[in-house]
Amino acid sequence: QVQLVESGGGLVQPGGSLRLSCAASGNIFRINKWGWYRQYPGKQREAVATILSGGTTSYAASVKGRFTISRDNAKTSVSLQMNSLKPEDTAVYYCYLHQTWDYWGQGTQVTVSS
Description:
Blueprint: E1 2-7, E2 10-12, E3 18-26, E4 33-39, E5 46-52, E6 57-59, E7 67-71, E8 77-82, E9 91-99, E10 101-104, E11 108-112
């Protein structure tokens, strides 16, 4: 089993920045993919940013150029640096990883409001 613990959500004004972090623990042997997803009320979860084991990253068009996903050297944690935040970035953000199966964090609320 793998456990994911997220941190870093909160309230920020439009144009501000937040950094989300996610640490994995448990039976980690080969993580194929990390990702950050978000979910709006009543909507399906959507991919925000992903990073593969080889380091290839991808971003949703709505966040490209504003968000950056990164992974630590030990490859047991991942972060999402969010800059130039907009009210439409308000959502619950989930950390995700794939290692044989899919694992999800508990979610952290990000609210962008003045």
